[in-house]
Design goal:
The complex is a heterodimer of chains A (about 160) and B (about 150). By secondary structure, chain A is mainly α. Chain A is built from seven helices and three strands, in the order H-H-H-H-E-H-H-E-E-H. Chain B is built from seven helices and three strands. With about 150 residues, chain B is mostly helical. Classes of the chains: A mainly alpha (about 160), B mainly alpha (about 150).
Chain lengths: ~160, ~150
């Protein structure tokens, strides 16, 4: 038996991310309230980048047979992709639309599809269902840091 | 950097949105040229490929000589409920994906266009070739999209 993922939780991520940064100025988004860790802006762009790759992986698992899934180095992406030059607003909408559209795909799948697998070059075999939940958790993990940084900013 | 290629890539950000203007859901889902994709399928395909193309560019910019994976477009079109998705959202995903990539490309020095990765089918590809591919691929599909619009009398 494969446990079914919580598609509603995954889909609600776009609204949760937007709510977490509501009312922050560009200066507050770009600040480093917890030294040595990412700015809120970096987290928002990271979420859009990470989900673009994550949803792409899940589409491979749904559409292809036992596809290879290649890991990426999030520190190199954050350091090398000029996150401060990218738009947080565009990242929020990309994140939200990608999840909402992919949730429609997930809802059309039969239960057994969530046991489909891909082979990640660093983590081995991963199932579709657990990957949906993994990305829901990935956002929640980062949201905790966003709220901690907001607190430090007095917001 | 600033050059003609980035300008073409940026100019195409709203091309899908413009090409879909005024089409009803029935027209999007119709097959005006039998045996070929609907306009809806082209729109969702363009959003899927734009995400893949941008991810490949990011890999090549951020990592050294990364592997780049091919995708099986026919399997994606057949297996990912393309008729259930929103063509308008697809056009917005294309627009925003290009907007973000343009910001990254403009922040890079010209020499970065020679950074490269190895595609599992097509071999070694430079950043310049990856941007050209994104531009040409969308232009190619939009020609068919406009031909289908014409058949629909739109």
């Amino acid at each position: 038996m494969n446990a079914l993922p919580d598609i509603t939780r995954f889909e609600a991520g776009g609204d949760a991310l937007r709510a977490a940064v509501a009312g922050l100025s560009a200066e507050e988004m770009l600040a480093f309230p917890v030294p040595g860790t990412w700015s809120i802006h970096q987290i928002v762009v990271h979420m859009a980048d990470s989900d673009a790759i994550g949803i792409h992986r899940m589409k491979r698992i749904v559409a292809e047979e036992n596809p290879l899934l290649i890991g990426y180095d999030e520190s190199k992406f954050t350091a090398g992709l000029f996150y401060e030059a990218q738009s947080a607003e565009a990242a929020l909408t990309l994140f939200d639309l990608n999840r909402k559209e992919f949730a429609k795909v997930l809802r059309r799948l039969p239960a057994e599809a969530f046991g489909r697998v891909g082979c990640h070059n660093e983590r081995g075999l991963i199932k579709l269902g657990e990957t949906v939940d993994h990305y829901a958790e990935h956002l929640e993990h980062h949201l905790r840091f966003v709220y901690e940084k907001r607190k430090k900013l007095g917001r | 950097m600033e050059n003609e290629l980035i300008q073409r890539y940026e100019a195409g950000a709203t091309a899908l949105r413009d090409a879909l203007a005024g089409l009803s859901r029935e027209e999007l889902l119709a097959f005006p040229i039998p045996g070929t994709w609907s306009i809806q399928q082209i729109a969702i395909h363009l959003a899927d490929t734009e995400t893949v193309f941008a991810a490949r560019m990011k890999w090549v910019i951020a990592e050294d000589e990364p592997p780049l994976q091919a995708m099986d477009e026919n399997r994606w079109t057949a297996g990912l409920a393309y008729e259930q998705q929103s063509a308008a959202d697809a056009a917005e995903l294309v627009r925003l994906t290009r907007k973000q990539m343009v910001s990254v490309l403009r922040a890079l020095p010209e020499a970065a266009l020679q950074r490269a990765g190895t595609h599992t089918v097509a071999g070694r590809k430079t950043l310049k070739e990856l941007v050209e591919k994104a531009v040409d691929h969308q232009d190619h599909h939009l020609k068919f999209l406009l031909e289908k619009r014409k058949k629909l009398g739109k």
